[in-house]
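User:
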Amino acid sequence: MGRKQKFSSAPSSTGFILGRGNQQISARIVKQVGIRNIIVVATPINFRETPVLYVDTGEAALDAEFGDTVLVVSGYRMAQRKRLYHSEA
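Assistant: Predicted structure:
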């Protein structure tokens, strides 16, 4: 089987890359794909207008595995790290 990847975008109004508005992506799917295979994308404008990003999979331990920052792809050969906050358990 080939490598699995999941793309997630961060709506500028909420900043959630997983959870809340993206509930269709369950914790089970995140575990199956693997955190390191989740690619976060945003337009350059959304990237600038969203100061921090959030993750809330419904499992605090899984949220913590994401770490304190996430790499966000915002254009061709453009990617930067953005601060990442986790759900409170």
